[in-house]
Amino acid sequence: MRLEALAPTRAPLVDLIAPAWRLPLLRLALAWAALLILFAPDWAAMASQWWDSSTYNHVLVVPAIIAWLVLQRADELAYLSPRAWWPGLVPMAGALFVWLLGDVSSLATASQLGAVAMLPAAVLTLLGPRVAWALAFPLAYSVFLVPVGEEIVPMLQTITAKITIALTEASGVPAHIEGVFIDTPAGLFEVAEACSGVKFLIAMIALGTLVAHVCFRSWTRRAAFMVLAVALPIFANGVRAWGTIYIAQSQGIAFAAGFDHVFYGWIFFALVMAMLMGIAWRFFDRSVEEPFIDGQAIARAPWLAPLERWSATGWTAFAALLALALAFHAWSARAHALEAAIPDEVALPDVPGWDRVATAPAYPWEPRAAGADRRVLASYRDGEGRVVDVLYALYAGQGQGREAGAYGEGALPSGTEWRWHSSTLAADGVAGERLQALGAHRRVAETWYRVGDWTGGSAIRLKLVTMRDNVLLTAEPTAMLILSAEERPGVDPVVAVADFRRATGGLGEWMDRAGSSR
């Protein structure tokens, strides 16, 4: 037998890649591998959410979708010659800076967005602007790898509750709504976080974006389709909640809950998805055979020619990219080492007209500040018998597991019977939140933060202040203050909390005295 007969007849994978693409793709693969290793904690956190959270299970197929989108362009990409490009380091530095801002402030959305954005930035740097333009949509679609959306849950709860009460009353069922709670003859229903519809909305936006790109050419039709892809699942979720309440009136809450999980959870939204596609089907204006890009036109595009004057040698650009990533990594490590000096003990100052009393809530409530270095919980009563509960927490630094106002921390502790009820607004414009437990116990809470000379109730502003201080390598302690009062006959908790706050004579200075930081 001749040995030549044993030689493989199929070309190895490398031979399927045009010679001009081999080294650039190798450098890109090495750069991506290095970035995935350097920023592995962020990718591991994202992967955990994709796998463990039903809200983000759909993200597991996003990498396959991106790969498919790239493969659809493979034939046209053959007309292009990749070239490394110095200006690509600018968006790379931008992605790294976004990651840094999120990393030093424990804002996972920002750090994960930055980690994802590094991959398209590496494509632009190592393959050049023509290739990046040809891959613009697949690269942009990578944003759906970032698990976001939980932030809009309260808004979706409110919208769902309003749709539900409107449909419930229209169907002849007597009902009363307070915040996200709907009281009917069959019982009290809560539009809980799990019923907000956020998981379906996020998945529908990702699907809608893909369909708009693949099935439409007209930007007007794409925009109209995306509006429908957002509005339809929100309205459908309200219909789902109404259906559960309506069925419960005759069949009982237990039956309605089971029906909701089986039919609405698995079948109803599949029908909604089919409805969306059915409505849009007749308006599809892109042929299946039509290529997604015109590689020859991109290769000849005159507007891209001036950009290529800043082309770089491949390995030099590769080294510069890695050096930039390592520099930001070192910057982050330095910021995480910051610790502000705080006292060994904290004590709440006196408040004129209010006396310290033993804490005795009608129903157990204890806000959480598990990551705080110092904390104290107390109660104050005024001459009218009104009681305000106070939590003061002091942090030497902000980081993962020790950040003020983190999820599950603060006035609404997770894993308890307390639920968010509605927003409140004091006479002086200060926002708060009304909480409810077991349908019978209610209280109002305001949350305040103090960093340096800034005092406010915005968790977003707190993140921004923390970002600024950590990026500038400035160590400042962070204080969190929660003021809360129970809803009792003859007592308006919103007014009670506001009166206590004014009695401090300046909340920021009062918090400073509690922490003895000045």
UniProtKB/TrEMBL annotation:
It is found in: Cell membrane. One of its GO terms (molecular function) is peptidase activity. InterPro entries: EpsH-like, Exo/Archaeosortase_dom, Exosortase, Exosortase-1, Methanolan_biosynth_EpsI. It holds the Pfam family Exosortase_EpsH. Its main location: membrane. Residues 317-503 form the Methanolan biosynthesis EpsI domain. It is a multi-pass membrane protein. Keywords: Cell membrane, Hydrolase, Membrane, Protease, Transmembrane, Transmembrane helix. Its EC number is 3.4.22.-. The chain crosses the membrane at residues 20-43, 55-72, 84-101, 113-136, 198-216, 223-243, 263-284, 310-331. One of its GO terms (biological process) is proteolysis. GO terms for cellular component: plasma membrane. This is Exosortase A. It comes from Aurantiacibacter arachoides.
